[in-house]
Amino acid sequence: MKTIDDYNFEDKKALIRVDFNVPLDGDFNVTDTSRIDAATPSILKVLEDGGSAVLMSHLGRPKGKVNPDMSLSHICEKVSEIIGVQVKFASDCVGDVADTAVSELQSGEVLLLENLRFYSEEESGDEAFAEALSKHGDIYVNDAFGTAHRAHASTTIVANYFSGNKCFGYLLAKEIKAIEKVMQTGEKPITAILGGAKVSSKITIIENILDKVDNLIIGGGMTYTFVKAQGGKVGDSICEDDKMELALDILKQASEKGVKVHLPVDVLAADAFDNSANTQFMDVNEIPDGWQGLDAGPQTMENFKQVILDSKTILWNGPVGVFEMENFAKGTIAVGNAIDEATQNGAFSLVGGGDSVAAVKQFGFEEKVSYVSTGGGAMLESLEGRTLPGIAAILG
Ligand code: AMP
Asked: Where does substrate bind (predicted)?
């Protein structure tokens, strides 16, 4: 696996695909700089070698049309401030404007190109557009994990024009290693904690990880499809009746593969989907009509904690309760605390995919786990066992 460390960029132009799809407020101020921070080490490495960096990214969903509200010019000052170099801006990512700006770029300088998605050719993976982009650099660096699951022009197709001169940036390399550590080289026992709302959105992940893990903790809204499928009463809890057979099949497969499945035994149920609803702890199998399970109960939290503390490798995807409401966040916090403790005891813990990162950030677990993935969709697809096109394009 070639990374940016395998190259010396002296007098070279690095064409770097970054993920600067950052949130902006009404005055176009960047409200969360994490993605810029995450790309900074790769940019600095190129500059320190004595090279120059041409940065390309998308911002928002302009759907192939120029939209001034989604111009990357809004973030140019913030990027300059973070990397400590005044960043130049090209008001187009291809054509004369871009070509001239690139040709005038000197070693030690950074150029940010305008939003790639102002062209529909970006998302369609157009060859000619990718070729035009490829003219902007001597070496292609992909450092955008958040879009690595897309076969777009700048993330995948462009790499075809850099045979032998393409590599992963630091961020993307870190993401790949973190996934490998769980899915391929993880120290046993390996535990996956899957929560979130629905079985249907996690099914491919579950099927893929049954071959890799020793323990599967199932929590959150998914619980009730499993419970009802086994004959329990789930009341008004979220439940996918059409997935009950699938749930039974997963349990059968798990038992055949020697994977221990841990489901909640008790829950905090409420008489409405509301933070101020009346609540009661209940047996997970005996939730009456008019009540719904919205968080893990105390015995469940204790059971999950023991499994997590006994693990050497931990993957966490999805909250185990409706964490957005304070009264139903305790289960998710308990899982986070247990992962924190296991990590302190030497386990490797990876959090990522979909909404998990929001929960982790909200409760301050970001610093306590080994790795928090920056790519929601890309991480989900990796956990499903798919090869991401952006990664394959560098390896190929
Ligand atoms: P996902 O994006 O699939 O990881 O789902 C995350 C969502 O699942 C969060 O918004 C949670 O509020 C929701 N969730 C977790 N537990 C439950 C539950 N018991 N009932 C309904 N929704 C839940």
From this structure: 19-21, 35, 58-61, 117, 150
Runs of H (alpha helix) within the chain: 34-49, 76-83, 95-103, 120-124, 127-134, 170-183, 203-209, 223-229, 244-257, 298-309, 330-344, 356-362, 376-383, 389-395
- For the stretch 28-51, pLDDT in tens is 999 999 899 999 999 999 999 999
Ligand 1 atom closest to Cα of 219?
16
Q: Give the range of the structural domain holding residue 337, as residue numbers without chain letter.
A: 176-383
Residue nearest to ligand 1 atom 2, measured at CA: 355
Ligand 1 atom nearest the C-alpha of 202 is 3
360 Cα: distance to centroid of ligand 1 (angstroms):
14
Residue where a domain terminates, one of 168, 190, 218: 168
Same-domain check for residues 102 and 77: yes
What is the structure's pLDDT at 39?
Answer: 96
Residue 393 lies in a domain: no
Query: Among this protein's residues, is 198 annotated catalytic?
Result: yes
Examine the fold and report which residue of 168, 200, 218 is the final residue of a domain before the chain moves on: 168
197 Cα nearest atom in ligand 1: 8
Ligand 1: residues whose CB is within 6 Å? 195-197, 201, 220-221, 238, 293-294, 318-319, 321-322, 324, 354-355
Please give the Cα distance from 293 to 280 (Å, whole number): 9
Ligand 1 centroid, distance to 196 Cα (angstroms):
4
Q: What is the largest CA-CA distance in the chain?
A: 71
The protein residue with its alpha carbon nearest to ligand 1, atom 5, reads 196
Shared-domain flag, residues 147 and 246: no
Q: Which of 108, 260, 312, 377 is catalytic?
A: 377
Number of domains in the chain: 2
Q: Is 136 annotated as a binding residue?
A: no
Percent pLDDT > 90 in the chain is 89
DSSP-assigned letters across all residues of 283-320: ETTEEPTT-EEEEE-HHHHHHHHHHHHT-SEEEEES-S
User: Tens digit of pLDDT for each residue in 88-101?
Assistant: 999 999 999 999 99
Residue 365 among known ligand-binding residues? no
